[in-house]
Amino acid sequence: MTHTAPTNSAARMDLPGDLTYAMDTCARCGFCKTVCTTYPFGGGFEPFSPRAKVHYLKEVLAGRAELSPAWVDRMYQCTTCERCAEVCQTSIPLVHLWEAARSALVTAGLGPMPAHKKIREFVEKWGNPYGESCENQAQWMLPEHKPAQSAELLLFGGCTASYRMPSMLRNGASILQHSDIPYVFAAGKEVCCASPFLRTGQDEVAAKLIRSNLELFAELGVKRIVSPCGGCSKTLKHDYPKWAKKLGLPFDAEVVHFSEMYAGLIAEGRIKPNRTLDMTVTYHDPCHVGRSQGLYDQPRAILAAIPGVTLVEMENVRQSARCCGAGGGVKANYPAMAGEIAKKRVKEAMDTGAETLVTMCPFCQASFDAAIKNIGAPLGLIGVDELLLQAMTP
Amino acid sequence: MTTFENDLTRVLGPRVSFDPEVLAAYDHDLGEMPRALTALFQCAPQAVAVPRDAAEVAAVLGIAGKYRLPVTPRGQATSGYGGSVPVKAGIVLDLSEMTRVLSVDQALGTVDVQPGVVWNELSRELAKYNLDNRITPTSAPSSTVGGWFAMGGVGIGSMTYGSIADVVRQIDVAGLDGSVTTYQGRDMELFHQTCGILGVVTRLRLACRQACEMRACGALLPTPESLAACLADLRAGSSPYSLSVQSAGYMKMRAQAEGGEAPAESGFLLVAAYPATAPGDAFLAKTASRHGGRPVDERVARHDWEGRFYPMRIKKNGPSMLVGEVYLPEGAFPAAWREIEAALPGPLGLEAVATADGRLAMLIYIPDNAKSLLYPLRMPKAMIPLAVARRFGGSVYSPGLWFARHSKELFGPAKYRAVMELKKRLDPFNLLNPGKITGANVLGLPGVEISSLIGLAGILAAPLSRRLPYQRRELA
Questions:
Q1: Over 70: is that where the pLDDT of B473 sits?
Q2: ipTM score of the complex?
Q3: pLDDT at residue B2 is higher than 80
Q4: B427 vs chain A: nearest CA distance in angstroms?
Q5: Å from B140 to nearest chain A CA?
Q6: Of B17, B30, B371, which has the smallest distance from its Cβ to A29's Cβ?
Q7: Nearest CB to B312: which of A29, A56, A65?
Q8: Taking CA atoms, which of A53, A311, B135, B211 is between 20 and 30 Å from A177?
Q9: How far is residue A105's CA from residue A329's CA, in Å, rounded to a whole number?
Q10: pLDDT tens per residue, range B357-379
Q11: Interface test with B, best of A31, A41, A348 (most B CBs within 10 A)
């Protein structure tokens, strides 16, 4: 069942019935407002709060407000970090709501934002939002990396790791090889997981990408998919099953983020990080690894297993972790805002006194890399996987 | 040409908005009021100003005075009494960006804050000094210090430390003449619970407590009488930091919302929090047993304590909730509660906290749906607890806009008179949060005051509203 805004609005908007009910339960308590990543960039005005956005959407559906360009812009100023949903008194699935609203805006011809249209053009032409030739998809590989022709495990690289921040992907492949775990890598065939398009409401192109990947998974016959990327693993884990059903395609592979795999291998004794690395680190919980997938303990278990590594926590961690600023299409369309959000998190990391900031998502890593350079922070930046690999290497 | 828009922009630059879309977000607070009711006022302001310090607040007030524009101060609007809702348009003074902790005196155990500081954030800041808030509202993750002082009220810790008025030691208040004045003691009391009708608070000094870990324990009591007796004994024989109560109806709603099991199907859950260094588990267990109750598993009490800031999670069962909020003398609880239950057949939840002065601050929840056509007709149900409580020596919890006619009763004649005299002196044109405390006349109907109208409607429509059950729609 869907609820449709009356036609006296500037444009029609459809939202699923379960979301409209959830919106009606909004207690207007404002817990979401105080934790919102992007609210501080709205000049202190209420309409930039998640609470106000819920109210506005209700008003639109009731025909008492119109879908103005300013409101559309506000709807896109959200990193989908899920902090709002985490604190919501009535457990409104707020990120699903934002995504559904964006999808409705796209359907109404009011979205997405210009930069999102650009990445759509890229992905339609190249299969990735960076406009890179798929011939370069395996450029991160080292000579010693020998993916199998056929295996139960698929290494899903993801576009950011494959084309921009390859270290986590490269280290992942090395650790798999070191652990004698055969894997396939679909070089040149893997397309974008569709996360940027699902987050920005571009369902049509998302469906094409998902279909392409689902057909690839079926062709490869994989039983398990591992990815270094928070966004990819979240999307494959949570969105693909729903879309597979919608598209009428099979999908029964287990999806894991590398943090789950590493922690499991350490627990089983198949990975032994014996080398001591004397360093103090602080860990950033990527939104799509932590809040989206509940993977808080695994990265910390990996760090705890590395001799000599001391973890000092930031003020806001786990469910309360601040966002890196990149998600939800914010980095693409509001780069200045994304940069400021990343800087805020880097400063929080510096306040711990740690010498190095570690994380487990290439998208976050890219944001922090720029922020650290921008403010000249005396802070190292490295992936947890990199530390693990170093500790595994005699 | 000089206009108030120009003047405001000169003072605040981009932190003032005249955009109708922005203004529309300020025409309501936490309460879900029927449109027919809010349409009686000019709830959307003409401007929203977001000051960051006392000087900016004073400057905005000076402009309001110059142009004779109403000013409605607002924290996070986490109360449902209409205290932060404009009734005559004008300027909304959004104080939620005044979030600085100005100073901490560790030796005296006090903290000076701007009014927009959020309670939980303050707790985090005070922890650095081994201090903590004496009391916190259950809306602590978002509500502001200044907002609670302006609305009045009690919360977690009020069993030991009383109300917000007992915790605030000193305030600075900005007036329409652009001045900022410091108040304390009796003079300060006039600004408490009066919704900013005398001036806008720009700084508060709060007394803090030593930070300590709290340990929760709980008991189930079978009847209202056993609950009241147990509460009285706990007051007399131990020193709980906080005492809270839930009825079986509330426990059921909460369990439904959380997808768990209610601790009991009848009776009341009493949860006490004691400093971990002086736990009260044994005393509570013994006391509850003496009154026919039994202690609950530690996990039940801990779950309740950890969820103390989430009372509205039960709204998942609504999607709306009619809420009656009252003070009631603890001794009167058994008789009053039986009357309330009898008067409100159907799902009904009670959540209450005990206060240092022997009262219960009670929230009575009735599931409903604000979208329903019959919602306005069922709303008088929320007035029934107040009518019952008043007969048993209780009162309204806070006057704000919707209960302004109860201000005199709640404040007492002396304070009410002093407030009105000061109002005349400081705000002769009734610009500071008009309609709150003093009462608001309905648009176009001079002499028809809204809270009196609501009171009358409550009396006349309550018998009908009781006969209009709400059937929750099941989701497909």
A1: no
A2: 0.96
A3: no
A4: 27
A5: 9
A6: B30
A7: A29
A8: A311
A9: 15
A10: 999 999 999 999 998 989 999 99
A11: A31
pLDDT digits (tens, 9 = 90+) for B409-427: 999 999 999 999 999 999 9
Torsion of CA B417, B418, B420, B421, to 10 degrees: 110
> B382 Cβ partners below 8 Å, 6+ apart?
B322, B323, B324, B364, B366
Number of H helices, E strands in chain A: 19, 9
Whether A320 has its CB under 8 Å from any CB of chain B: the answer is no
Residue A6: what pLDDT? 43
- Residues from chain B that touch A56, judged by Cβ atoms under 8 A, are 25
Q: Does B422 touch chain A (CB under 8 A)?
A: no
Helix (H), strand (E) at residue B303:
helix B298-306
- Token digits of residue B284: 């509570």
Closest CA to B206 of B246, B149, B156, B257: B149
pLDDT digits (tens, 9 = 90+) for B198-237: 999 999 999 999 999 999 999 999 999 999 999 999 999 9
Rounded distance between C-alpha atoms, residue B203 and residue B189, angstroms: 15
Q: How far is CA A370 from CA A322, A363, A375, A387, B248, in A?
A: 17, 11, 9, 21, 55
Q: Which two tokens stand for residue B18?
A: 């005249």
CA B386 to chain centre: 15
| Nearest CB neighbour to B22, from listed A30, A47, A89 | A47
Whether residues B313 and A71 touch (CB distance < 8 A) is answered with no
Instruction: Please name the amino acid found at residue A129.
Output: P
Q: Measure B211 CA to nearest chain A CA, in Å.
A: 18
Tell me the average pLDDT of chain B. 95
Parallel, antiparallel, or unpaired for β B71-74 and B91-94?
A: parallel
Whether A45 sits inside 8 A of B50 (CB atoms) is: yes
Q: Can you tell me whether residue A359 is helix, strand or coil?
A: strand
Q: Check if A250 contacts B (Cβ < 8 Å).
A: no
Nearest to A21 among B26, B142, B475 (CB): B475
In 3D, which of B386, B379, B430 has the Cα closest to residue B409?
B386
